[in-house]
């Protein structure tokens, strides 16, 4: 089947080779008109050939009905129209057949050859008929009339349908190309939307993990110290009232500090939500995931005043006040680092001290901080606890995510994190962060 592309639809709904019923009705109407035309023109043809009129009419009906096949076999329609041209039949079939042929997807050489054959046949037939008319005296014109009429008729019956068919075919192919391009763009946009949704979901998961890590760092250390001081307060409340008052004051200070940090974090999260909502409306869909992650990260890291290494002495002092023996040593020249580096280093030491309170209460702990040329290193190591099980006696719960959170923090900055038990029965946490 040679398709002309006149109908473009995803699934054909017409009969046989027609894509639509409308096309079938149009072709059937044209074939009926062509059959009637050829039947009428078959009457003089039968008389001139000495045949019965019924034969000429039947021949015209059959020949004209071939136009019904123009969409499936346009070459056959054109060849039939050329074949019956000497009988002066099938003018409508020739016009429609040439148009359909030129608008089809056939090679241009084949279209040109068939159009040339139709032009030559029409030229010869018209020339012979006009010359016969001149000889019989039906037409009294000059010698120029016969070639003029022959050429004009041949061009008029051939050039317009071919040119119109070429134009319609080119326009149809252009529209199909644009439609395919639009479909391709729609598929790409759908893929981009799905990818953006995946990025947004990834950003949400990352943000939830990071917020959970921040909350753990803020709450676990303060509350653990509060529990330790509360236990000490309970032990000395009757024996040493002054020490009990001091421990109660420390518990109150630590509770206020924990509340202050929680308020700051929640305030930053509210601000980050506002920024994220504005950015989501302002950027394209494909950039939602990246913009949300970047805005949330900037909001939490830069918007709030996080801890720094300058507060490390205070952190160690709080643990010492809770009864822990802590030895802090700093190597190298103290200098400033980026906010995220100082916060990460502080959180690593804080979480390591919290783990000592939970799992090795009473053990001597060493905190070492080294300022190097291209990195900052920290190590928290505790000895074996004097009384195993003392930590569990204070009912300090453990979520099991402290070491994981520290490793994620350090890895996010391109650093190295190592933790594990020591040969002497203690535990060591080490981290190196590029400066």
Can you walk me through this structure?
The protein is of the alpha+beta class and 435 residues long. Helix content is 67%, strand content 8%. Among the domains are: 21-140, no CATH class; 308-435, 2-Layer Sandwich (Heat Shock Protein 90), CATH 3.30.565. The protein has helices spanning 21-49, 53-65, 74-83, 91-103, 108-136, 145-236, 241-282, 288-303, 312-321, 339-359, 390-393, 402-412; strands at 326-331, 365-371, 375-382, 416-421, 427-434. It has a 5-stranded mixed β-sheet, with helices on one face. Helix 1 runs antiparallel to helix 2. It is an enzyme of class 2 (transferase). InterPro entries: HATPase_C_sf (IPR036890), Sensor_HK_TwoCompSys (IPR050482), Sig_transdc_His_kin_sub3_dim/P (IPR011712). The chain crosses the membrane at residues 49-69, 75-99, 111-132, 144-169.
């Amino acid at each position: 089947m040679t398709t002309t592309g006149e109908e473009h639809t995803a699934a054909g709904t017409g009969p046989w080779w027609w894509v639509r019923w409308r096309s079938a009705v149009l072709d059937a109407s044209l074939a009926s008109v062509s059959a009637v035309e050829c039947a009428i023109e078959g009457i003089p043809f039968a008389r001139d050939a000495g045949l019965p009129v019924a034969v000429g009419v039947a021949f015209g009906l059959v020949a004209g009905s071939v136009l019904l096949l123009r969409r499936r076999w346009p070459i056959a329609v054109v060849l039939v129209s050329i074949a019956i041209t000497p009988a002066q039949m099938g003018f409508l079939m020739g016009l429609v057949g040439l148009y359909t042929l030129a608008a089809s997807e056939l090679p241009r050489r084949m279209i040109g050859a068939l159009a040339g054959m139709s032009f030559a046949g029409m030229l010869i037939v018209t020339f012979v008929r006009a010359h016969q008319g001149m000889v019989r005296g039906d037409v009294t014109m000059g010698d120029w009339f016969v070639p003029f009429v022959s050429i004009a008729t041949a061009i008029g019956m051939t050039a317009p349908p071919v040119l119109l068919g070429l134009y319609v075919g080119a326009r149809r192919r252009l529209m199909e190309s644009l439609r395919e391009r639009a479909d391709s763009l729609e598929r790409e946009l759908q893929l981009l939307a799905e990818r953006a949704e995946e990025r947004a979901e990834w950003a949400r998961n990352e943000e939830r993990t990071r917020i959970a890590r921040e909350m753990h760092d803020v709450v676990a250390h303060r509350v653990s110290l509060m529990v330790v001081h509360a236990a000490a307060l309970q032990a000395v409340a009757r024996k040493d009232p002054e020490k009990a008052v001091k421990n109660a004051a420390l518990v109150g200070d630590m509770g206020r500090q924990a509340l202050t940090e929680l308020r700051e974090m929640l305030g930053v999260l509210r601000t980050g939500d506002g920024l994220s909502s504005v950015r989501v409306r302002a950027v394209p869909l494909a950039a939602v995931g990246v913009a949300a992650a970047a805005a949330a990260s900037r909001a939490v890291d830069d918007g709030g005043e996080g801890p720094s290494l300058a507060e490390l002495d205070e952190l160690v002092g709080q643990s010492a006040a809770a009864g822990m023996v802590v030895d802090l040593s700093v190597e190298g020249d103290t200098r400033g680092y980026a906010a995220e580096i100082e916060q990460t280093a502080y959180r690593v030491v804080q979480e390591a001290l919290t783990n000592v309170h939970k799992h090795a209460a009473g053990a001597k702990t060493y905190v070492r901080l080294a300022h190097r040329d291209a990195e900052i290193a920290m190590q928290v190591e505790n000895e074996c606890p004097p009384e195993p099980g003392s930590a569990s006696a204070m009912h300090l719960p453990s979520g099991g995510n402290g070491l994981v959170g520290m490793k994620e923090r350090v890895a996010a900055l391109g650093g190295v994190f190592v933790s594990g038990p020591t040969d002497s029965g203690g535990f060591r946490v080490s981290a190196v962060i590029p400066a």
